[in-house]
Design goal:
About 25% of the residues lie in helices and about 35% in strands. It has a five-stranded antiparallel beta sheet with strand order 1-3-4-5-2. The radius of gyration is 15 Å and the shape is elongated.
């Protein structure tokens, strides 16, 4: 687990807005990169796509744990899977593709030193 949030802004029905799950994933990506000493990588990746698959609601006051794993690694991109859970209950999974880019936003090959960190051995589940 790399992230935890108990700040669950909810709807009147008491469940978390779906868009907030993406914020929790963004925070977890930053925490993952900080834990693995690759914050420079976090600052240079650009979000290409995110697909959220909802399973069950998180409710107001729930503590949401976010687990991060690398699902795929390309030349210039990485696919990261986030699993958001409340206790044993999966709330949603989010698959996000990030593209490594220079300051101008042009895709760049992911450096070998970072590739080694992103390999599946660093799964946080």
């Amino acid at each position: 687990m790399v992230g935890r949030s108990s700040l669950c802004r909810g709807r009147p029905a008491g469940c978390v807005f779906n868009a907030h799950y993406l914020l929790y994933c963004d925070e977890a990506m930053g925490a993952f990169c900080a834990q693995h000493d690759i914050l420079d990588f976090a600052q240079l990746v650009r979000l290409k796509t995110s697909t959220l698959t909802w399973h069950a609601p998180a409710r107001w006051g729930d503590t949401i744990d976010v687990f991060v794993s690398v699902a795929g690694l390309g030349r210039t991109s990485v696919t990261v899977q986030f699993e958001l859970r409340v206790g044993d209950r999966s709330c949603c999974t989010v698959d996000t593709v990030y593209v490594y880019a220079d300051d101008a936003g042009s895709p760049q090959p992911i450096p070998d030193t970072i590739r080694q960190v992103l390999l599946p051995d660093n799964d946080t589940r």
